[in-house]
Structures are given as C-alpha cells and as structure tokens.
Amino acid sequence: MTLFAQIKRLGxxxxxxxxxxxxxxxxxxxxxxxxxxxxxxxxxxxxxYIYSLIAFVxxxxxxxxxxxxxxxxxxxxxxxxxxxxxxxxLSVLATSAAFxxxxxxxxxxxxxxxxxxxSYISIIYFTAGILAFDALAIIPFASxxxxxxAKRFAxxxxxxxxxxxxxxxxxxxFLKMGIKGIFISGFAASASTxxxxxxxxxxxxxxxxxxxxxxxxxxxxxxxxxxxxxxxxIQVIDRPILRAFTNxxxxxxxxxxxxxxxxxxxxxxxxxxAWRPFYFSIVKEPNAKQIFSRVLxxxxxxxxxxxxxxxxxVDDIVKFRMFGRYLIHPNYWGGxxxxxxxxxxxxxxxxSTSLTAGIYIEKRTxxxxxxxxxxxAVNIVANYFLIPHYGMTGAxxxxxxxxxxxxxxxxxxxxxxxxxxxxxxxxxKIAIAAGGVTALYYLLSPHWLNIHTGIFIELMKFGLLALxxxxxxxxxxxxxxxxxxxxxVWEKGL
Length: 494
Description:
Layout: H1 3-29, H2 31-38, H3 41-62, H4 65-75, H5 81-105, H6 107-113, H7 121-136, H8 138-146, H9 150-174, H10 179-204, H11 211-221, H12 224-236, H13 238-245, H14 248-258, H15 262-282, H16 288-318, E1 321-322, E2 325-326, H17 339-355, H18 357-361, H19 368-390, H20 392-417, H21 424-448, H22 454-474, H23 480-493
Antiparallel strand pairs: 1-2
C-alpha cells in the first residue's frame, strides 16, 4: 500500500472514530434533559456521584492493559498474536471477576462508606457488573482498533449508547424504576456490548497464555494507573468533593448544568480529531509554525464567539419547551450561573489541545504527564478551598483553574522544546473584547428584569454579540488579507 493510501486510510478511520465519538457524546447528553424531567435533583446527584466513583475505579480495573496490549501486540516481541490477545484478556477477566465479587460482597459496607441509603443496595450490584463487563471489553475493542476495523468498533460503541438511552427511557418513564433503572440500563448496555464482542474474543483466544508476556504487560501497564487517576481527577473529582461539603441535590443541579458545557466540549473534540492528522501532515512545511500560530488564533476567536452566544442564550436554551416540558426542568435552573464558567474551562482545554502539537511532533509525550498531574492537583486544591465558600460555583471555578493551569504548563513546555511565536497580542485583543462584552452583559442583566418585552431583551443580546466584532474591528484585530476574504464571503453570501 502506498504512503498516500496509508494516510488516506488513516484519515478515514480517524473520521469514523471521531464522528462516532461525537455522536455518542451527543446521544449521552440527551439523557441530561430526560433525567432533569424525571428525577429530583437529589436523585440525580446520587447517580452523578456514583458514576464519578465508577470513573476512578475503571482505571483500577484496566490497570494500563490497553496501552500494554498496543505496545506488545504491535511488535510481537514476546509470544504469538493469539497469546498477545489471550494473556491480557485473561488477566483482565481474572481481576475484574475478583474486584466485582468483592464489591458485591461488600455492598452494605460500601453504601455506608459513601453515605448512600441502604435502599439503593441493588445499584451496587449493577455497578459491579458494569465495571466487570466494561473491563472485559477493553482488549477486544483494542483488537478491533489494531485490525483497523473502525466501522465495527464505532458500531458497537454506538449500540452501547443506544441500548442505554432506550432502556433508560423505558425503565424510568414506563416502569417508574427511578435510579435503579439507570443502573440496570448501564448494566444491560455493557453486557450487550460484551456479547457483541464475543466473536472477536473467540477468534483471537487461544491457550495457553504466556507467563513472560504477562510480566511484561504488568510492568508496562501498571505505571499508567497514577496518570489515569489524575486524568479522572481533572474530569470528575469535583462531584465527590462537592457532595462532601453540600448534599445530593446540589450535586444533581451542578451535574445537569455542567453537562450543558457539551456544546463547547464537542467543538474541542471535533477540533482534536482534525488537528492531530493536520499538524503531522504539514510539519515539514517551511511555514508550519506560522500556520500553527494562526490556527490557535482562529480557534480562540471561534470559541470566544461560541462562549458569548451560549452565555447570552443559555436561559433561552434550557427554557425551550418540547412535548410540554422544558429542556431542563426548573428545579435545576439554580445552577445556570456555572455554565459560562464551564464553557470558559473547555475553551482553555481547546487551547491546551492546540498547544500540544509541539510535544507530539518532538515525540516528548511523557511530558504530558506533568500537565495532567498539575491539572489534577490544581483541581483538587481549588475544590477544597472554593466549595466551602462558593458551593457549586466554586467547583466550576476549580475546573476552570485546572484547565487554565494545564494550558499554561503546556505553553511553557512547548516553548522550550518546539518554540512557536504565537500571536499573543491578537489573542489578548480577543480576551479584551470578549471579556468587555461579557462584563457589559452581566451589568445590564439586572436592569433587563424590569423589561417585560422579551423581544427587546433578545435584541440587546444580539447587539452585544455584534459589539464583540465591532470591538475586534476597532482594535484592528483583522489584517487586510482577512478583511478582504471576509468581504468576499459576505458578497458571495448576499
């Protein structure tokens, strides 16, 4: 296969993985409006809390076996192809069975430890099953990726989500099962995915496993546990800490509004899937660094515009009515103030994603662990300091600070190993314009409460959006070439 054909195939696989991931995340997001309309904040808080714990325990269940599998299957330096599948699979099978048996056996003690009512004992059993089946899918899914069976991989992932969503609706709406229905849905989806993967498992499974390979897999995989836990800490540590200082209802309200940040998160995800193959494809171009710099500028400009749109109109979004119900139930509106903070955090995650190009280009990926541990440390410390004083708002700011710190650390690292002259002055102009317009929005908002004409309020919001671009023009953000291209686009649009 020619080089071009290899690259083309890689691009196609990346597109499939990317689209399936984005669609999957959007389908999962659809459960948020659903949950807010069928669960009380306290009930949703318990679900959010337990799933945040599941995220951490998943790291223990996998103990780096996926990365170890990729490493040794790709080289076959120890054992045969089937041994390189069978050995890590049997390892995960044995440990998952042991871990889940322990969780089920200690269900009452675990409920007491996490301060959840004994009436929810069944969800611990279903959680043990979810963890086991999810772990058992790790190596088969990794095998599909190694064999470049991207379509099958994406299909199974999407089927998992579809089964989960459909069962949630059926069990919660028609059977009125509440929280228990959520965990039954998760268990059924995970078990179904394992069944989908059985042909892959049977195809690659062969006894006996390799003892030498097993030792090598553990040596390579186990060190991934701290980094995995740090990554989870950045993403979900705020829920357990918030619950420790407040209650389940606050966690539920926080979770529902935090999830509204998906709109910015999807932008970051889509950009990440497109960005990685892009920068490797042009890295040898003489103006590659200039392109990387300009890309970051345009990315921040776009995300700043999205930030303003969502900040101004999030009230309208959540109050949108469908089938007689609001998108987000009024019981959860008390946390809408955290949405702009979450959006801002994801904006800096996008910046961090763009900056990491230099690290991958220079093959210094071990430096990324520094960034991860810094983000985790900042998040944990900030949560403990801010939540007691500011509640869920403090938790949102802690997440923002973590992503902000990560972007700063990546910038310092990249400037040392792959220096790029980023357009800092132009980025500063974006920050000034967006920050000024946002401040004006919050200064005017109290006065809008006395205005009974909804159309006038909406026009004011659109006026502030227009002001953002006017300020950008006044500050001479756009150069002549960019203005010319914008005029061409405008004229063609007309």
